[in-house]
Amino acid sequence: MKIAVDAMGGDFAPMEIVAGAYAAAQKQKDIFIILVGDKIKIEEQLQNKPQLANLNIFHASQVIEMHEEAALAYKQKKDSSIAVASRLVAEHKADAVVSAGSTGAQLVAGIFEIGRMKGVKRPAIITYLPTIKDDCLVIDVGANADCKAEYLQQFAILGSAYAASVLGKENPAVALLNIGSEEEKGNELYKETHKLLKKAPINFVGNIEGRQLLAGDVDVIVCDGFTGNVLLKTAEGVAMGILSILKTELMSSALTKMGAMLAAPAFRKVKKKMDYKERGGAPLLGINGISIICHGSSNSQAIENAIYLAEKCVRTKMIEKTIASLGKEA
Amino acid sequence: MKIAVDAMGGDFAPMEIVAGAYAAAQKQKDIFIILVGDKIKIEEQLQNKPQLANLNIFHASQVIEMHEEAALAYKQKKDSSIAVASRLVAEHKADAVVSAGSTGAQLVAGIFEIGRMKGVKRPAIITYLPTIKDDCLVIDVGANADCKAEYLQQFAILGSAYAASVLGKENPAVALLNIGSEEEKGNELYKETHKLLKKAPINFVGNIEGRQLLAGDVDVIVCDGFTGNVLLKTAEGVAMGILSILKTELMSSALTKMGAMLAAPAFRKVKKKMDYKERGGAPLLGINGISIICHGSSNSQAIENAIYLAEKCVRTKMIEKTIASLGKEA
User: Fold this and answer.
1) Percent helix, strand and coil across chain B, each to the nearest 5
2) Among residues 115-174 of chain A, which lie with CB inside 8 Å of chain B?
3) Is the CB of residue B93 less than 8 Å from the CB of residue B289?
4) A238: which of B191, B238, B293, B309 fits an S-S bond (Cβ 3.0–4.6 Å)?
5) Tens digit of pLDDT per residue, chain A (330 long)?
6) Which residues pair with A2 in a beta bridge?
7) In angstroms, rounded to a whole number, what is the distance separating the alpha carbons of residues A110 and A104?
8) Is B232 an 8 Å CB contact of chain A?
9) Residues of B numbered 177-216 whose beta carbons fall under 8 angstroms of chain A's beta carbons: which are they?
10) Which of B234, B243, B244, B269 should be substituted to probe chain A, the one whose Cβ sees the most A Cβ atoms within 10 Å?
């Protein structure tokens, strides 16, 4: 299996990206990693490390920066690392691409290099949300800020196929994010989507409210990209905020300080559970190839985990199974 | 000061409502409470308690139930407790109304009994969000599921006036909830709103992402009612979820269990900080009177705190100051 890693994308590129790719290549010999980007800069990062047979470099001369307008930058920089890495997937020279660079650029490269699956109107980003049970999935978390009900219906099908293939869930429970449990709740978009989901070829279990998010009772939560992104960042912000408030309170007396010391292993476990770096990245669904979107601030550990996630998507035949699910819909 | 309390609204009405109103009347002799609802049922709740000079009953024969379609129920039940209580405010027989009943019914009663402020297109619900510093305010959290940019602009002005009057903030910092800090981020509604807020007579500090929610760096966060409601419930769900995950982890070994025991006071403080019952309720802004919306599941403590919040809104002349702020806009 070959995985193309965009070595130039992300706040800590190429250092953290190369380090993460190297770690994955070292541990999993059956993964062949192609580092895509500036050959000289990548070699600099590798110079003190023993050479690995399953890690090589594919040169790309340009980089799309975070602040650039994605569609325009993609057009102007045909040799950008994300375009080249995505092209390797399109040309079947790689099985997946992993990037921590501009999400917009990765989305555009996914659509124009790799191409949308037949019938898919809008590719969407799916991500993992920790719950008190297993992780659940949320789709879309940012690819589509403005949505129509028919897009959300497709997100539901894409998300359900992902849960079935990659997570091995039988008949995944799919819920619609909403502001009430009753069918008639929500804004116009969500009311219309609810009707469509009832008829979709998925196990639709109804609306879910933010309050039940962490209960872990559903496998896939469907929403538009604006709301999904707000939800994701709110969950992250609140989780970190709570731990920070708790830390302040714990440090306020000698007794609670001692309690905190004894309880430290539990805190570490919770922090780890809530840490996006443990999950690595969020797959872009609805395109004819695997493209894993990582946090801009990804460190080597996040990149390494994103590579394992890409490997899992390939191994579980996510693409083939998703295409089959979409076929059922038509 | 007179506060009308809808004794029949809420999951635990009339018991918890009457108990909360009684507690407030007992503690704050300058608040005169009018319990609105079924006289016999309310008297049942009061029968074993010493009579208070500042607590009386105003009979209303009907109740709007949670499951009823609000606008229709309001039309059909002119003698419902929420309509009657709101009418007392409209007729200046009460200074504020507090209810834990149907939010939709309270909104409709607010608009049709009390009336919108001049120029206000859509009243909105403002609520308190705990942060690592002071609480911040979020508007709208559910009155308007479908919004236009001009509504959001008014929410910003209403929220700013509220922070200035009730919280005594000078030049409150108002931010727009969004999925990125840059001006061009967001969906169409939020991009347009950003432009309007830059021109509005408020201290607009730009976009805020969910990740910074609990940092407490802004006073007011503006969003549409759908997104705001998702945000609020997600924050609540994640906060409770984290504490629940932490509890499970803490119980997993003898050492962490002991740590948890010692650290218990800190946990209690955090739980209290995150508990909506501490704040009582969320004011409905943009109408010519004070109407405090409480959680359907409010207990007596929540109702008591909502009464104190109503009292604070009256005392700080929230209505007069908001009207003055709206005047500045025109």
Assistant:
1) 50, 15, 35
2) 131-132, 142, 145-146
3) no
4) B238
5) 999 999 999 999 999 999 999 999 999 999 999 999 999 999 999 999 999 999 999 999 999 999 899 999 999 999 999 999 999 999 999 999 999 999 999 999 999 999 999 999 999 999 999 888 888 999 999 999 999 999 999 999 999 999 999 999 999 999 999 999 888 899 999 999 999 999 999 999 999 999 898 888 999 999 999 999 999 999 989 888 888 888 888 888 888 888 888 888 888 888 887 776 777 899 999 999 999 999 999 999 999 999 999 999 999 999 999 999 888 764
6) A32
7) 10
8) yes
9) 177, 179, 186-188, 190, 209-215
10) B234
Given the structure tokens 């806009």, which residue do they identify?
A: B329
Per residue in A143-173, pLDDT (tens digit) is 999 999 999 999 999 999 999 999 999 999 9
Tokens of B314: 């009256």
Q: Find the length of chain A.
A: 330
pLDDT digits (tens, 9 = 90+) for B69-103: 999 999 999 999 999 999 999 999 999 999 999 99
The residue written with tokens 């390797």 in the block is A88
Going by C-beta distance under 8 Å and a sequence separation of 6 or more, which residues neighbour residue B179?
A142, A145, A225, A226, A229, A230, A233, B185, B186, B190, B209
User: What would you report as the CA-atom Rg of chain B, rounded to the nearest whole angstrom?
Assistant: 20
Q: What is the pTM of this model?
A: 0.93
Phi, psi of B70 (to 5 degrees): -60, -50
How many CB pairs lie under 8 A apart between chains A and B?
202
Percent of chain A with pLDDT over 90: 78
Residues A286-305: b if buried by 16+ CB within 10 A, e if exposed: bbbbbbbbbbbebbbbbbbb
Cβ-Cβ contacts under 8 Å, A256 against chain B = 262-263, 265-266
Q: Dihedrals φ, ψ of B114, to 5°?
A: -85, -35
CA angle centred on A153, ends A149 and A157, rounded to 5°:
165
Q: What order do you get walking across the sheet with A124-129 strand by strand? A: A55-59, A32-37, A2-6, A96-99, A290-293, A282-285, A124-129, A136-139, A220-222, A173-177, A203-208
* Antiparallel, parallel or unpaired: β B124-129 and B136-139: antiparallel
Spatial separation of the C-alpha atoms in residues A9 and A11, rounded to whole Å: 7
Q: From chain B, pick out residues whose CB is under 8 angstroms from the CB of A238.
A: 210, 213-214, 234-235, 238-239, 242
Q: Which residue has 């476990």 as its token pair?
A: A269
